[in-house]
Amino acid sequence: MEAEKAKKQWTVQELVGWTTGFFERKGLVKPRLSSELLLAEALKLDRTLLYTRWNAPVETAPLEAFRAYIQRYVEGEPIEYILGYRWFMTYRLEVNRDVLIPRVETEELIEWVAGRENGRSRRFLDLCTGSGAIGIALARAIPEATIVASDISEMALDVAQRNARTHQVYERITFYRSDFLDGLDNLIGPIEVVVCNPPYVGENDRHKVNPATLSHEPWLALFGGPDGLDFYRKTVENAPRLQGKRVYFEFGFDQKERLETLFSSVGTVAFKKDMYGQWRFLSIDIHS
Q: Fewer Cβ close by (within 10 Å): the C or N end of the chain?
């Protein structure tokens, strides 16, 4: 915020207006929404309540917090990390730099899985759970479901467990620290469906990744080897441990043909496009 205006007593309306213009000049997306979200967070209010205080002055402490948020945002930090949460479907999930920010495409994966499995399957494995978005959404969508959620990161599991408690599904999700399926042998047997949004960005495509993503989100959850397919190859190698199960994956927009070739040897493969018309999801019925 401009130094010469530092001592001005700002109202909510003035702050939103000035910050929206500032974000527009910086070329940031959704400048009005972003300014309102950051100011609401500084004031510890729901964004909709800003309008009830539209002409009210903003006190020093929240004003300083707001200035700090603006600085972080224009420097490229994702707004979800500044706010400390991301809305996923209808659930407000805690996020921080220990977990990947859930994307809207993964909401479509959940809708596909729930639509196909509700009433058929009850035991799920949420592999690479991260913030817990997939496991929590499945638990809420399928009331009779029980879920094992695993991740290699202990810090990510801490976030996922807090989110599961918040959304009152903690008792139905068993959390394990695991690298892929390691250590889960005693749990794999009863599992009917595996759902996973794995790291699938190719390290060779690092230059194509949004700089904010590279600077702030965990690389472990982003990169899947030189071509992005390492996690899928590991699944094929471990197909005998997954016999008779259905596995769902999210994948990159240009990976369909390679994944079809890769998985056709171990099961029956189906693909689904996302809302943008890109091939984005697949299921494999692993041969018994």
A: C
